[in-house]
Amino acid sequence: MSATVVDKTQEEGLHEPHPKKNYLTADHTIKSWLLTVDHKRIAVLYLISTTFFFFLGSIAAAFIRAELTNPMGTLLTSETYNKMFSAHGIIMVFFFLVAVIPGVLGNFLLPIMVGARDLAFPRLNLLSWYVFMAGGTCFVIALMMGGVDAGWTFYTPLSSLYSNTPITLALVGVFFAGFASIFTGLNFIATVHKMRAPGMTWFRMPLFVWGQYATGVIMILGTPVIAITLLMVAIERMFKIGIFSPELGGDPVLFQHLFWFYSHPAVYIMLLPGMAVISELMACFSRRPVFGYKFVAFSSIGIAALSFLVWGHHMFVSSQSVLQGIVFSLISFLVAVPSAIKVFNWALTMWKGSVHFTTPMIYALGFLGLFVVGGLTGLYLAAIDTDVHLTGTYFVVAHFHYVMVGGTIMAFLGGLHFWWPKMFGRMYSEFWGKLSAIIVFVGFNFTFFPQFILGYLGMPRRYHYYYFAPEWQVYHVLSSAGSTVLGIGFLMPAFYLTASLINGKRAGRNPWGAKGLEWEHADSPPVTLNFDKPVVVTGPVYDYDAEKDSEMIRAGQRLVDMVKGEEEK
Amino acid sequence: MSSHESTHPDAPVVYEQFEDIGQQQETYVLGMWSFLVNETMFFAPLFFVYGLYTWKHHADFYLAHALLDWRIGGINTFILLMSSFAVALSVHYAQKGRTRAQLNCLWFTIACAAAFIWIKLQFEWIPKISHGVFPNPEFIQNYPHYAMEHGVPAADPYKARLYYSLYFAITGLHALHVAIGIIVFLALIYLIKKKSSLITDYIPTEMVGLYWHFVDLVWIFLYPLFYLMPRP
Ligand code: HEM
Ligand SMILES: [Cu+2]
Questions:
Q1: Taking the CA of residue A356 as centre, how many other CA atoms within 13 Å lie in the half-sphere pointing to its CB?
Q2: Domain span holding position A546
Q3: Is the pTM of this model over 0.80?
């Protein structure tokens, strides 16, 4: 986006003898990190903690995949296996996916992108991180007490009556994590409404901001519902009252309704921020404004609204009436419309753009491929007659991994690679970056595509043996082998990104030649209050010019050819 | 308005993330409203669950509800309404800069809130809890005795237990909000008296006031739903 105040001295700030202080160098004490109210530092805190939880969740996944290489399921006992997939699901959903993009990229970029000096409520933002860590600590303690076995869905009455594991502590942990996300959502909403710089109209906001905003709305409308529902489970567990347990006169389907009332929107808490990142990447590396900007912006809001009306598609076989099933099924098909709008608009952005295959863009393209598969298989699950066969099988497992890992994590990694130079002022190795993006994509498909076939053949989810159908072993082994590749792909960035902090090239303000306040008006890394001068926005968003860009590349190429020609003569 | 009452002759503090005081005030109020939306969704499932089970076990819930005294609930309703009025006044005085009047209103609100909790404990929770009529394994035995003592026909004890579980959960969560309100009011008074830089305009009072009206509103729904149940 173009802006009138282009400050030349800032561009040259890089070469000053006394380097300007930025948010990282402003203060070095531990206390200055733990008590910071700077949204950028809080983003870094979130980056460190979500990475830790991702690592923890991955270890559990490794055990699951190891167990399933053998039809007899001899590595782990049934109880341990249940605890493994519960730990995996709970950590990945509540302590990683929900928090990662809003907590890291959203916190870091949202204020800068709207031209504000910080989020609206900086102290609330810090509180959010502490509450998140408190929740994480509760869950880690629950793990150390032996782990919980009720799955990430905490279905009653197992969770409320029968399970002998520290469920209550785990519920408290998730409750806290929920409030962390509510605080983040509140901050985003207030910031977007009230903190935009002069000239930053709603339709000049980057689509990243629209996506985070829609996410914030879901967070404050949906998360309190799961919070209180899990509290009810905890109460039922402690006092043995019958809200959800049929033995005590309660209704387990009621729990499912309340749970999915949040948890379907929650899948969009996980995905919308990812889509938000992808819009930025597509624009920058196609050198074109995002095609159909308003459609993409409103599709985020549309997804947020519709996502509250489809929860019943998780419950087609749970005694809800046929009419309910049909209504939920039809509305679920509707959700595909705004999602498809986004995909088509991204595709059209690349069309006639000049696409640059950088590391972030390769991640973004990977996102596109995987999300399309995930979304389309969602339609099989949203159709009642196919879902009756596929529900509770590996088909569902494959579906949601394609959307949540293929969607959210690819987008997160793409975004992290895109804004890494901005966040830390250093370039990483493009070679390793591209390699990791490709390895993740290939590994991912090897891991999860076989699971579609397994699910179609009938492999039930959450089983740790399949001696009744040993012919499935080949798919399971393929999947486990793929997950090893995937794991390597995920580990690589940890190394080369860390290395870049030490020996990476200095990035300069705008290494990608990107548009946007964060690139054009803020240093890399930005100063503590983001900008040296107040920002005034005068131009449209995504002020890229593909024609000019490719023209310049071609001109440059002609020049090189000419010089070469001269030399050869 | 006399000038010596005005707490802050200086201009209000604008935090570094804001451009001017207007933006800061609007942002805080918007933030508070968003929080109340969140709070609404926090209470909503409880009301939904209660509504569902009332619809399903209306007759038993009706019998169980006979042990609640609508007069005590009514007094508490009145007390909360008074407190809301006092909070509204205190915001008004805060805007006018009449600090002493503002503080008096806040003290009155705290008194109301404390009275609410005291009445709730003294006449409702403690008698029931001391007779074992609260969610616990012996409820099933205790409840019929307690009902007999009070001369009301007993409901199916299992349904009654559900009723009282929801009663304690919802009124408990509400009372927790009242207690948090008291703490926040006390903190507000303390900061105002200390002339803290955290409170340089009426916005903190307004925000706490909004919260308090919400707590009040929850009770306005809670009271008829629990105490004034229609005959099945
Ligand atoms: C095109 C849009 C989508 C449709 C129509 C759709 C449809 C469905 C349906 C019908 C189910 C239930 C299957 C069953 O239990 O039998 C399901 C499961 C699931 N979906 Fe989607 N989905 C869509 C997109 C997404 C997205 C974007 C995400 C996450 C980012 C997601 C995450 C999940 C998860 C986590 C589950 C499994 C929950 C569980 O049982 O543990 N879905 N999806
Ligand atoms: Cu769903």
A1: 19
A2: 34-568
A3: yes
